[in-house]
Amino acid sequence: MNWAFLQGLLSGVNKYSTAFGRVWLSIVFLFRVMVFVVAAEKVWGDEQKDFKCNTAQPGCHNVCYDHFFPVSHVRLWALQLIFVTCPSLLVVMHVAYRDDRERKHRLKYGENCRRLYQNTGKKRGGLWWTYVLTLVFKIGVDATFVYLLYHIYEGYDFPSLIKCEQKPCPNKVDCFIARPTEKRIFTIFMVVTSLACIFLSVLEILYLVGKRCRECFSSVQNSRQVMTNTLSSGSNLMDSNNLKGTCKSTPETPAPSYSVAIS
């Protein structure tokens, strides 16, 4: 698996993320990808070879191993990391689409034309919905894989002794898992980091929705304030015009003539 490509993808989407998104990326890369590459593959590298059963019956060892480990933890986590990081590529592609549309608009109408986007990487309009939908998808992927891990292996514990009665085993056979404590620790660690990523994604959705609602409320208040100011200025103008009209319509009393004044 090309982890360098995954690192470049996470680094590229980091500049379009919020503070919660950057923390999420750090947890995914440092505590999930790095731990997976450095330690997890080595812990589960010899699980089938060191899975021992107290029998020499041909095929019994393979059947018991397949019964208790139907899917490898390493492959399941690799699939989870791929699915949980690929939605970030949609955000990068959407921003690239905006940049290309802005470039074609300038080529058609000139460099001094009105821009389609003030900032192509700003989460407004369709990009906001794309970002929120990717967060919902990430939450769904992590929650699904946490449940699958619990359902397939019947919990996150690794017992030292396993009883196997699968055919072609002649009877109940005792089987032993290699390094069960070490596997238990790494399994719990990966589950906890998945739950932490789910929590951060939920917080990021609440932050984006709250910020959008606050901006809408502020725009409504500003429009009402502008309307109120317009109405008040118009009423003041009408009052001043009425006052001027009243002053002009008032007739002036002519001064009495000299003879009337003497008499």
Oligomer: single chain
Terminal CA distance: 121 Å
Task: Give the SSE string.
Answer: HHEHHHHEEHH
List the total number of helices: 8
Spatially, the strands of the biggest sheet line up as 1-3-2
Secondary structure class reads: mainly alpha
The count of strands amounts to: 3
The helix fraction, in percent, is 55-70%
Could you report the average pLDDT, rounded to the nearest whole number?
Answer: 77
What spatial form do the alpha-carbon principal axes imply? elongated
The portion of residues forming beta strands comes to under 5%
What are the defining features of this structure?
single chain; mainly alpha; 8 helices; 3 strands; 4% strand; elongated; disordered C terminus
Description:
The chain is mainly alpha-helical. The chain has helices spanning 3-13, 19-43, 60-68, 73-85, 87-109, 126-152, 180-249, 258-262, and strands at 52-53, 161-164, 173-176. Strand 2 (161-164) and strand 3 (173-176) form a beta hairpin. The protein is elongated and about 95 Å long. The model is unreliable at 246-250 and 257-263 (pLDDT under 50).
